[in-house]
Each structure stands twice: as C-alpha cells, then as structure tokens.
Design brief:
Layout: H1 3-10, E1 12-14, H2 20-23, E2 26-28, E3 33-36, E4 39-40, E5 52-57, E6 66-71, E7 76-82, E8 87-89, E9 105-108, E10 117-122, E11 125-131, E12 141-145, E13 149-152, E14 155-158, E15 168-170, E16 179-183, E17 191-196, H3 198-202, E18 209-213, E19 219-221, E20 227-229, E21 246-251, E22 260-265, E23 272-274, E24 304-309, E25 318-323, E26 338-344, E27 347-352, E28 368-372, E29 381-385, E30 395-400, E31 408-413, E32 426-432, E33 441-448, E34 451-457, E35 472-475, E36 485-491, E37 494-500, E38 506-511, E39 520-524, E40 540-544, E41 553-557, E42 563-567, E43 574-576, E44 580-581, E45 588-589, E46 598-602, E47 611-615, E48 621-626, H4 627-633, E49 640-643, E50 647-648, E51 652-657, E52 661-667, E53 677-679, E54 685-688, E55 695-702, E56 708-716
Parallel strand pairs: 3-31, 13-18, 50-56
Antiparallel strand pairs: 1-54, 2-48, 3-4, 5-6, 6-7, 7-8, 9-10, 10-11, 11-12, 13-14, 15-16, 16-17, 17-18, 19-20, 21-22, 22-23, 24-25, 25-26, 26-27, 28-29, 29-30, 30-31, 32-33, 33-34, 34-35, 36-37, 37-38, 38-39, 40-41, 41-42, 42-43, 44-45, 46-47, 47-48, 49-51, 51-54, 52-53, 52-55, 55-56
Length: 717
C-alpha cells in the first residue's frame, strides 16, 4: 500500500458506532389511503389542526412561497409545500424550526433581505430569530434578540407581550420596516404602538423600537361587545371588564394606505373590525363592526385570530380565521376550527370552516389510536379515541377496506360502541389479549367525573360484533390521575401496567391478584430509570418488537418532543434517539409531535416490522414506517450522501449510505486514492481529503451482492 493511500485509510473517522441506530430509523409515511364517505383525504396523516397561526415562508429555498402553520394549542409547526396551485404536507421541514417555540409564532422579514424571519413569545415578551438560510440550502435560524426592547419614557425596556396574546407585526407607518402593535401586558384596554425607527435613523431595516402611544387609533376595548372611542369610558364603572388574551391584525382592508385593525378576544366569539378613518400618521378609529369579514357568515370561533394570506394563489390576500386559545374540553367542534374566506373583489366569501383540516384525519382533539384486526378479515382496522367536544368523547372506527399489503382505511363509525352518551371527557383505546385466549380484547381508558378509569371489552369471538356491553369487566387502576397514561401488558405471566405520569416518571405495577379482584404491587416508580422530570411530562409508552429480533422494545414520547426507543428493554435497554432519517444526508434527526401525544404501534402497512402511529393533541395522526424494513422489502437503489459538496481542501468529507457498502475514492481518470472503505448503513464517516488537489472526485460503491453506484464531489482551492 502506498503512503498516499495509507493516509486515507487511517483518516476514516467513525462517528457513530451504535448499530441500534440503523435498526430504528423512520420516515413519515403518507401513502396509506384514508377515505371519509366518497372523499379521499389528500393529507390524511398530517396530524390535525386546532389553533393555527398562518405564515408564508420559502421552506425549500426554491424561490416560491410555502406555508408554515404554528399550532398554538400543540406548540407544533406544520409545514406545507406549494406547487403554485395547491399545498402538500411536508413534515420533513418541521425539525428545521427552533426548538421550544410556544404560544405564538409570526414569520416576518425584519431586515428586508427577502427572507421570513421568526418572531415568537418568550418569558420576557418576544424573541427574534433571523433566517440565515443560504440560497438553495436548508432552513437555518440565528437567535439575534432573546428579548426585544422598546424605548419608553424611562429608557430601554423589554417589549412585554402576554403569552395569551397575538401581536400585530407589520409596517404600520409605511416606511418599509416592521412596527409592532400590542395590548397592555397585564390588562389590555388600549393598543400600544411601538414604531420602528431603523429606517429613520440608519436608512436600513432592523429592529429599533420606540413606544409612541398606549392608545393607538384613540380607542379601547371594554368587553366582548363594547369598545369606546375618543374621550368615552367603559360603561361599567368606567373600567375595562375583559382582561383575557387578545389578538390583533393590522391590514389595509379599506384599500388605502392607513392600517385598519381586527381584534379577537379570549372567551369572545366575535372579531371586532375597526376601520381607520384617519391617516397613516394620525390613525383614528370611530366604530367597531362585529360582522367581520362577512355579514352573512361572520366568524363565530371562540377567541379568533385573523391571518391575511393568499391561499388560492390568485394574487389576492384571503382571510383565515382560527382559534387562538388553548383547547378546553367540551367547548366546540375543533375539527372545524380554521375558517377560510376567499377574497372576491372587495368582499370575502366563506369557502370552508375546515381549511386543510378537511383533508386530514381530524377527530377534533386528543386523538388516541389503537389498531387490530377488528373484523377478522386478515388486516388491521383502527380505532381513535377522542376528547369531549360538547357531546361526550367517543371512539371513531376506520375499517380496512384494502388488505394486509395494500391498506385502505374507510371511516365507518364516528361513535363506535355509542360511548359519547356516557359523558366521558377523554377516551383512549388499547388492544391486548388480556385473558390469553388468542383474541384481542379491547381496553378502554376514560375520564369520567374527574377520575380516570378503565374497562375491558372481552372479545366475543363474533367478527360481526366483537365487542358488546354484555362482556365488560372494570379494571381498578392504582393511584391514577386524569393526566396519567396507563399502558397494560404482561410482565412474564403477570398482568401489569406501566403508568406514564404527568410529572414525567414511569411507574410499574404488577397485579398479584385477578382482574376481578386486583392486587396491584408497585415494583418501581422509575421504570428504566425514568423519574420525575419537568422537561419530560405527560409520558406515553408502548411495547412491541420494533426490529423483528424476537425481543420486546419500548417506545416513549413526552412533552420534550422526543420520540425514543429502548432496544430490548428487558435486556440491554439501549436508548435510541433521533430516529428519523433525513432524505438528503441520511442522518438521524428528531421531529416533535407537540404536547400530550399518544404513541401506539401497528402492522397496518404490511411491513415486516411494526410502524408507529402517533395520536396528536390537535386531533390527527402521524404514521411512521421503518426505513430498514422498506429496504428488506425491495431491491432499493444505493444512495450515498456526501457533504459538504463542493468542499474546500481543509474540510472533512462526510459520507453516509442507506445500506452497507464498500467504497473506493477515485478521480475522473479512474486513479484510485484509497483502499476499500466499509460504510455501514446510516453511520456517519468522515474522510480527510487535505492531501488531494482541487478537482472532481468520485466514491465508487458496491454491495456484497454486486450492485454498484457512485457519488461525485468537488474539491475547491
């Protein structure tokens, strides 16, 4: 071997040695068809939507405007690519947004560079992330203001915005930079105007705020139905009577430069439209109209927030109105919580009350899935437990009208077993052969009168009516709060339960008695060393053989937003994180499902190993399938990710393959510059290329079965 070749052989850097990572890599599966009546959902597995905050952004840096919706209730971004005529759900972009976003997110271009930057709620008011994405590259953010300040009478102070509110961030004075309108942090009342002086002081766009007034437009809100103008005071005691959350949008609805306002209020179902009868410099509001935006079909969403974006691609800004509160049990139909008004001329016409939602599985809120072959036809069907939406929580049945290899889920019943009349606040199903007779029994976990309970519907052995009220046994569950998540299983031969606590810990109990006469023994309050932790609250768990090795694996999800797997949890219990595979780099990453999600497993897709199905607080589902299983099922083409590309001579070349391969480094003339290098599937390796000259090079790859491929890269000076 030459010294030159030896350099490369010795400088291959193995960065990931844990083979378990390659066994547990997943991607979002949107291929399983779901049908409601005659309608095939276009984005069935997008996860539902409750309190959407709508934003325009170029997600893939191709120069076209895409859509990012931040679900306030679930603290989760949803990303949709635009093709110029429709939106497609694209979850692979969601993990590029900063972690820990909460309450509200508005994407606005603060520095006039043509890219949408990110304003969001923070503990001291609001923060600002700059969009530092490179042309044609991935989304990237830089936190430039952890706290945004404004200049008041006493100097610089943090611009406080209640986490319950939604401010207006727009060019109010028409000078090209972004100003901010927000209500008083504590009590509401008048609108505070923070003028951006960056253009006036420096001639360029930035953030340089000065508080101009605490009564923009010379008005104040008193109650849901009362606004006062000029010198008038609130009719009840002269004081503000409504101090809840408030949303503001500033937009020239009247067609002139002066900005009009629309205001939504917490616990109020009317949006108040205030036309600016003054000028840009001296705004003046003199009346309020509660029929906005359409007198025939005005908004009636509780605590409305208004967004002006072009969603039908005709060049005119339409209106989307969504709920801006955190979901409360039994208030309304959360599956119709995003009203779309199309702009036609100077008016707005209601098109749908479920914009985008109507193309998803969306049971309202608190979706909790469980899958089994309910009708005994050889493929898995699906039950989804829901939260209460005014008529009691229920079970929704999707029957598999396809087969084990080509599933097609049809919504069959929206109140399976007629449980909505029971008045439950929450229902979560689980299938388990609880009496070990070879049939899947149905366990229903539910909240009633402030207590969480459970019952088993024993399988009747009748596929036409497998579960009936005549075959129910109640289960006594130890020390359970309404926010805990119990998961039943067998520990050896004993009936057992794992309880994911709202506080983050995982308790294990084993039943030393019978189901009819339970005697629960606490084994541990920190199963798998999972103890109380504020970061990992609302723990949901499931158990299955996720990699087909005959050993049970353990899946967990909590409010940290991380889905984790413990490989062989009864043995080595190796923790695997970042289980999603990036389609470009082939590396693992994490993607959040928001708060209060419910995790389950399924063989729905006809795969050799289980998929994971997540029920979201926002009422929908997301389906995750194992990448490795797909590679076993088909003769998948070799894919090698090399990056950065091009790279400089002092860079390290990163290499990742989608399967086990051997590569050699060659140039365009076929000269070999390394010994054969083994790349294991999903494992990041680095190659030191400092001894190479600038030019075009290639990694020549082959598998043990003789299949071949290659990947090119360029070294610059």
């Amino acid at each position: 071997m030459s010294n030159f070749k030896r350099i490369f052989f010795l400088t291959i850097l193995l960065l990931v040695a844990n083979n378990a990572i390659a066994q547990f890599q997943y991607h979002f599966n949107q291929e399983v068809e779901v049908v409601q009546g005659d309608k095939v959902f276009k984005m069935a597995w997008a996860g539902g939507l409750n309190a959407g905050q709508y934003n325009i952004i170029d997600l893939d840096n191709d120069g076209n405007d895409d859509l990012m919706i931040f679900d306030r209730d679930n603290n989760k971004p949803l990303t949709f690519l635009s093709n110029g005529s429709a939106y497609t759900y694209a979850p692979e972009f969601e993990h590029f947004f900063p972690e820990g976003l909460s309450s509200w997110v508005l994407l606005r271009d603060y520095n006039c560079d043509g890219k949408a930057d990110l304003f969001t709620s923070s503990i001291f008011g609001m923060s600002l992330y700059e969009n530092v994405s490179a042309p044609g590259g991935q989304l990237a953010w830089l936190l430039i203001h952890e706290t945004i300040f404004t200049e008041g009478l006493g100097g610089q102070i943090n611009l406080q915005v209640s986490s319950l509110d939604l401010p207006a961030i727009s060019d109010v004075d028409g000078d090209g930079d972004l100003d901010i309108l927000a209500f008083n942090f504590a009590i509401g009342g008048g609108v505070h105007y923070h003028q951006n002086m960056s253009i006036e002081r420096t001639g360029s766009c930035d953030i340089d705020l000065v508080k101009i007034t605490d009564r923009y437009g010379d008005f104040a809100e008193c109650t849901c139905d009362e606004y006062v103008f000029g010198s008038d005071v609130c009719s009840i005691g002269g004081r503000l009577q409504h101090s809840g959350g408030k949303s503001i949008v500033s937009y020239p609805y009247s067609g002139v430069a002066a900005q009009d306002l629309v205001i939504g209020q917490e616990t109020c179902t009317k949006a108040g439209f205030l036309q600016n009868m003054g000028t840009v410099q001296v705004p003046l509001m003199t009346s309020v109209d509660f029929s906005f935006p359409n007198t025939i079909n005005p908004n009636t969403i509780d605590y409305p927030a208004i967004f002006n974006i072009d969603v039908n691609f005709d060049g005119n800004d339409d209106i989307i109105i969504s709920n801006n509160s955190f979901v409360i049990d039994g208030i309304s139909n959360y599956a119709e919580n995003n009203w779309y008004y199309e702009k036609l001329g100077s008016s707005y016409t209601l098109v749908t009350k479920g914009f985008l939602q109507e193309e998803m599985i969306d049971v309202g809120y608190a979706a909790s899935p469980a899958l089994a072959d309910i009708d005994a036809d050889g493929d898995e069907d699906m039950l989804i437990g829901t939260g209460d939406q005014g008529a009691g929580a229920s079970l929704v049945l999707y029957q598999n009208e396809g087969d084990a290899l080509n599933p097609r889920l049809l919504e069959k019943e929206t109140d399976y077993l007629a449980l909505s009349s029971s008045g439950y606040q929450m229902i979560s199903p689980q299938f388990l052969d609880a009496n070990k007779n070879g049939r899947q029994d149905l366990i229903i976990k539910y909240v009633e009168s402030g207590q969480q309970m459970a019952s088993i519907y024993w399988h009747t052995n009748n596929p036409l009516q497998p579960y009936t009220e005549a075959n129910i046994t109640g289960i006594t569950i130890p020390q359970l709060s309404i926010h805990d998540n119990p998961y039943f299983y067998f520990s050896g031969s004993k009936f057992a339960v794992l309880i994911g606590r709202a506080t983050g810990k995982l308790s294990q109990y084993i039943n030393q008695g019978t189901l009819e006469n339970s005697q629960w023994e606490l084994i541990t309050d920190s199963f798998l060393d999972i103890g109380d932790d504020f970061r990992f609250r609302n723990l949901s768990v499931s158990i299955d053989d996720m990699d087909g090795d005959g050993k049970s694996d353990f899946i967990r999800y909590d409010d940290s937003g991380y889905l984790k797997i413990y490989d062989d949890f009864n043995g080595s219990a190796v923790l695997v994180e970042n289980i999603f595979q990036d389609i470009e780099s082939l590396l693992g990453y994490n993607s959040s499902f928001g708060k209060d999600a419910n995790v389950s497993t399924t063989m729905l897709t006809g795969s050799k190993v289980p998929s994971i199905v997540i029920g979201l607080k926002s009422g929908g589902l997301q389906l995750l399938s194992n990448v490795e299983d797909e590679q076993q099922a088909v003769d998948l083409a070799i894919k090698i990710a090399v990056f950065p590309n091009p790279l400089e001579q002092n860079d390290l070349l990163n290499m990742v393959s989608n399967q086990d391969i051997t590569v050699e480094l060659i140039d365009v003339w076929g000269h070999t510059f390394s010994d054969k290098i083994l790349l294991s599937k999903g494992v990041l390796n680095q190659l030191d290329i400092r001894a190479l000259r600038a030019g075009l090079y290639m990694l020549r790859a082959h598998t043990t079965t003789g299949r071949k491929s290659s990947a090119k890269f360029v070294i610059t000076n």
